[in-house]
Structures are given as C-alpha cells and as structure tokens.
C-alpha cells in the first residue's frame, strides 16, 4: 500500500542548470582601500523656485524672532501682563454669578 504523499526526498533540481566544477575553489582577491574608489555623493538639486526659497527663508526668520520674543520674558512677567489685560476688559466679559446668594 503506498502513501497518498509519496514524495522523493532531497533538493529540488532545475532542468538544464549545471554547476560549474572548480568555481568554488578559486579564491577572490579582496581589494584594498586604494583599489576601491570612494563613493560619489550626488546631492539632488533643490526643486523649489527662487520665490519659494525666499518665502521659506523669511518664514524661518519670523519663527526664530517669535521664539526669541517668547523666551525673553519670565513666567512672572507673562502673568503680570495677562492680569493687566484681564483688568482692562469691560464688565461684559465678567463671569456671571450662578446659584443662590
């Protein structure tokens, strides 16, 4: 009685492919640093137009100015300015009392 899975063992072989004898016996010479050329680094061109470059430059400058402005004040100064601002608002902005009494 034969099994339903009667499969021969071993490696798969491709038809028409032959292994060259002696190819594994030849050692390859490893190149030295002087023989290997240094890889060339090619930077891609900037696809932006001149006006886009200027716009980005101005935006980064404004951002840096804002960061410097915010970093120049201490927390105490910021709280004092905020309280002064709230004090200058009209009664319309006051929080109405809710509840009895």
From TrEMBL:
Residues 17-77 are annotated as: Disordered. It comes from the Eukaryota. Residues 31-68 have a biased composition (Basic and acidic residues). InterPro entries: FAM32A. Residues 17-30 have a biased composition (Basic residues). GO terms for cellular component: nucleolus. This is DUF1754-domain-containing protein. It comes from Planoprotostelium fungivorum.
